[in-house]
Input
Amino acid sequence: MATYSASPQPFKGDPTKLRLGPASITFDNANLGYTLNDSVSIQIDQESTEIQPDQSALPLKDIITGMVLNVSMTLGEVTKDNLKLLPGFDEDGNLVNPMGVDLLDGAKELIVYPLSDADTLMYVFPKASPLMSGPMVFARETPQGLELNFKCYFDNSEDEGSEVAMYILDKPEASANGGT
Output
């Protein structure tokens, strides 16, 4: 039986790289205002398929076969302008039948811009489409919010053969979003 050895590396954590703070959200060149409950999050879910031939007890390969990229948040400002971002809402902010709407047709640029000056990166999703993902609550002790989930898609419009779903960019030196 073969022996196996491992060498753990010394811990090299950098506390200056730990970040706290909210983010500013821009969709289709419009800032969406306040968010609630530390709710802005980026989630990447990847799926894989194991390739396991009959002659092997273990997989010989494990290939990524799917990925879902979402940005979720609760907007604190429930306005007609924010409702009109959603599929099925008309220019007056009224809900009409959204059946058959192609989300890719309405996908626009989404920017998550952390407001902390210590955070030096911003996250840009060239094609994102919002969906309402929860209730609008009317409660005594909870601010009213609009729960949104932005589905993010690959964009190959910039360079043929190169598909990008999320750019991680350095923040510009001076920002219209402000900082804390």
